[in-house]
Amino acid sequence: MTLTISRILHAGYVFECAGARIAFDPVVENPFSRNCHAFPDVRFDHAQLRDVRFDAVFISHFHDDHCSFDSLDLLDRATPMYIYCLFDELFDMVRELGFVHVYPLRIDTPVQVGAMTVTPREAMDADVDSMFHIQAGGLNVLNVVDSWIDPHMLPALARFAPWDMVLWPFQTMREIEVLSPSRAAPAPPRLPEEWIDQLTALKPRYVVPSSCQFVQEPWSWYNHAFFPIAYRQFEEEVGAALPDARIVRMNPSVSFVLDRDGLTAAPPLAWVVPVGEQDVDYRYQGHAAPPRTADIARHFAPLTAAQQTRVMDYCASGLLDKYRGMELPEESFFEKPRVWRLSVFDHAGEGTHFHYRIEGDAIEPIDGAPDALSWTTEVPGARLYAALELGEALTSMYMRMNDAVFDAQTEADLRDAELVDDPLIRCLFNDVFGAYQAAQLRRIKQGS
């Protein structure tokens, strides 16, 4: 018995065996997550995809680059949907989209689809995501998605060694470091040591560098700042550590037939259409100086008067209400009295500055400019509006923190501070679930 494995995009794959066809994390949009443009480039023939029938769809977690309603909207509503998520709201939304067979996945509980068995395996952040163990015809494939393997789980996975194939998330993404580039430590020059240790324990015959490199707008400095690990580096380091394994690159649409004897090329997915050169590699330039937030903001279209009012009202009142209603993280930088400046830049690069005094769960606006600051946050107004109303993710907001020099005590305190402790990040994203999918669902229903 053979297993055909095809790449869609990012962690998206199609598995086919003995007449059964299943999809994992099928995102069929470019750009995806609003502003992530596939790299290498690809487009999708949605008309063809609408005629494809899947025996099941498996979604590893709720992040918008894995669970997108614009993509699910293209699928037959009778398709069984198996989703790993601890939040009931997502299942309710998928049913509201029209799917009638929607099931929660449980760790280590197998799901049988024809000749294939899919078993969710525990990921490092079990509150968010899962991995997938696919078994068919005596073959074992581990789809690590874009998770990490927790050390305590490795012995259980190693019992299946040698794995026939491992789909490995080969990139470390610097989505936090770009928020405060002047303070970020340089990227390590080599792969994380635990990757090599874990792959060695799994003893795979084939390793696919999975997860997707993406780029943003052509002018974006992020296009050389996010991904320090290249395909070439991954292949060299893993190949040297695992000489018996074969590293296999699978660009979007590429298909292989896997069996006990080896791996052979198969016809590509017809509804995934590569655009231009495919064997491209990301050019990381961690030393490049980022542009000012004011200059970044000039690239975005002006907000309407109503949209501008929404942003300003939020900064003046909505943000304060939200902050006061949240619980401060333990050992927060803001446990002590701090002065925070939030700067919102319009399409002309002009900034409106808001100042707040924060202590613990308390926040109050400050009139005028204070003598000293403890924390600064900058954001284009267009991206702040998108986060408020359209489900924009932190990855593409172009927020910037603490590009300033503070007093000596504040600088000492900042060395132990977490960037995600930023008040704007917390107010926009803490205790908020499914904003991206909810915005998609509203739009889809309005258009139906």
From TrEMBL:
One of its GO terms (molecular function) is hydrolase activity. The keyword Hydrolase applies. InterPro entries: RibonucZ/Hydroxyglut_hydro. Gene3D superfamilies: Ribonuclease Z/Hydroxyacylglutathione hydrolase-like. Keywords: Hydrolase. Pfam families: Lactamase_B_3. SUPFAM superfamilies: Metallo-hydrolase/oxidoreductase. This is MBL fold metallo-hydrolase. It comes from Massilia atriviolacea. The lineage of its organism: Bacteria, Pseudomonadati, Pseudomonadota, Betaproteobacteria, Burkholderiales.
